[in-house]
Design goal:
One of its GO terms (molecular function) is metallodipeptidase activity. With about 300 residues, this protein is of the alpha/beta class. It contains 11 helices and 9 strands. Bound molecules: zinc ion.
Length: about 300
């Protein structure tokens, strides 16, 4: 079945000379037709070091694509329902190292970045992340960057934002996703989203990627397919079945769902889901919803 994943941190792992769980072999075995690769630099390092890290990850991304027939990168073009290869897309997770320097944003777009979040969990010069109280939100510079994103058909990712920033993005941004999260209805964690936020994303024709991180799924270090299934069930019950998908966060999480240790395990998850949900729900969830969302906004350009 066509599978798509809206978030992984494999590039950081490769940049740190570690071997990623998301790689050519596991993508192939998992039937992954579409994989988003996030550019991320640890926020503790200096702005200069973060900029250098992002450059390094971009270079590594293009090297990987060049070296493998199985990875395709064609920014701003239509993505086919074909998982005999993987369409690799690029996003930026946290943009404190760019601030509102639009030359740098343009440069990133020219290198294939099509989606970006303003901040990680912290508060930076653009927005306030999920660790921050709601008296903080988007800054003037953050609003300017959203405007640039709208003008350049860049998707605004609200994963990691606090609620205040989220609602401001909903108001200002054209195309909004939460690339890797779970639901607060099932676990009240600052990285998860409320039913009200889900409804706003449905309204906006956005997208929600569900992570495999047990800490966000049930608050422990252990989760099973059934815990993941409960997230899906809840989202379907509040009318979000057409906008949900996978946002694994592989290579960015310290534990994962039992039986789902890397992309090669997707067929097992799919079989489990097919035994419990309608086929069209499963097809949407594991890939088609994200592919369609991505094509909708690419065509809009
Ligand atoms: Zn993240």
């Amino acid at each position: 079945m066509y599978t798509a994943d809206a978030h992984c941190d494999a590039l950081l792992k490769i940049a740190q000379s570690d071997s990623p769980l998301v790689n050519i072999d596991t993508l192939k075995k998992g039937g992954v037709g579409l994989q988003n690769f996030a550019l991320f630099a640890p926020v503790e390092s200096s702005i200069y070091e973060q900029q250098e890290m992002i450059k390094k990850e971009i270079t590594l991304f293009h090297m990987c694509v060049k070296q493998s027939d199985n990875l395709h990168s064609n920014p701003f073009t239509f993505i086919k329902n074909d998982n005999t290869y993987t369409d690799a897309i690029l996003s930026l997770e946290g943009a404190g190292m760019l601030g509102d320097n639009l030359d740098m944003w343009n440069d990133l777009k020219n290198k294939g970045v099509e989606m970006a979040s303003l901040t990680w969990n912290e508060r930076n010069n653009l927005a306030a992340g999920s660790s921050q109280p709601n008296r903080y939100g988007l800054t003037r510079a953050g609003k300017k960057v959203i405007q640039w994103q709208n003008n350049n058909n860049i998707v605004t990712d609200t994963a990691h934002l606090n609620e205040q920033s989220f609602w401001q993005v909903i108001e200002l941004a054209d195309t909004v996703v939460v690339s890797h999260t779970n639901t607060r209805a099932l676990l009240d964690h600052p990285r998860n989203i409320t039913d009200k936020q889900v409804a706003a994303l449905v309204n906006k024709n956005g997208f929600i990627g569900l992570t495999f991180y047990p800490l966000f799924i049930n608050g422990t270090n252990r989760a099973d397919f059934s815990d993941f299934g409960r997230q899906v069930e809840h989202l379907c019950s509040i009318g979000a079945s057409d906008i949900i998908g996978l946002g694994s966060d592989f290579d960015g999480i310290s534990s994962t769902i039992n039986g789902l240790s890397n992309p090669s395990d997707y067929p097992a998850l799919i079989n489990w889901l097919l035994a419990r949900f309608d086929e069209n729900i499963v097809e949407g969830l594991v890939g088609e919803n994200f592919r369609k969302f991505w094509n909708r906004r690419r065509i809009k350009r």
